Amino acid sequence: MSNEQTKTILLVEDNPDDEALAIRALKRHHISNQVIVAHDGVEALEYLFCTGMYAERDINFKPTVILLDLKLPRVDGLEVLRRLREDDRTRLLPVVVLTTSSEEQDMLNSYSLGCNSYIRKPVDFVQFSEAIRQLGMYWLLMNEPPPL
Q1: Degrees (nearest 5) of the Cα angle 91, 111, 4?
Q2: Nearest-angstrom CA–CA distance, 75 and 73
Q3: Bridge-partner residues for 35, per DSSP?
Q4: 113-136 b/e with 16+ CB inside 10 Å = b?
Q5: In this structure, are residues 6 and 65 in contact, taking their beta carbons and an 8 Å threshold?
Q6: What DSSP designation does 53 have?
Q7: Chain CA centroid to CA 64, Å
Q8: Mean pLDDT of residues grouped by 10 in the chain (148 residues)?
Q9: What whole-number distance in Å separates Cα of residue 58 and Cα of residue 66?
Q10: CA angle, 112 then 85 then 54, to 5°
Q11: How do the domains of the chain map onto residue ranges?
Q12: Class of 9-140 in CATH
């Protein structure tokens, strides 16, 4: 399968335990799509806009879905979302906020900035695994993404 046909997940997550759980849950449910991990907001933006350490990456190859944590070092998730929505090249990319935040303001800000979905990370691994399975099934198999 060529890069243009591969459905890729961009996981923006600074917590190594949550990163490992998400990848484990995807594999457990036979979702074998490529997962790119950005460990902070700066790395996510560099990946998406092909700058910094990703300057050689083809900007035409976009992730199918972005799983975005809000509480990130250097640049937080809301600022990442704001910058994505401000740029014509990335404004239509599906973004699922996947966070531990139960702050109503975080949810309101996420939707105001154009997230497609807001999901609180379940604490229990079985529930977390099921949430990841459902995310993968919906965003990678069922959802019809906009032509980019």
Answers
A1: 30
A2: 6
A3: 9
A4: bebbbbeebeeeeeebbebbbebb
A5: no
A6: G
A7: 9
A8: 66 93 86 91 97 93 94 96 96 93 93 95 83 86 79
A9: 17
A10: 135
A11: 9-140
A12: alpha beta
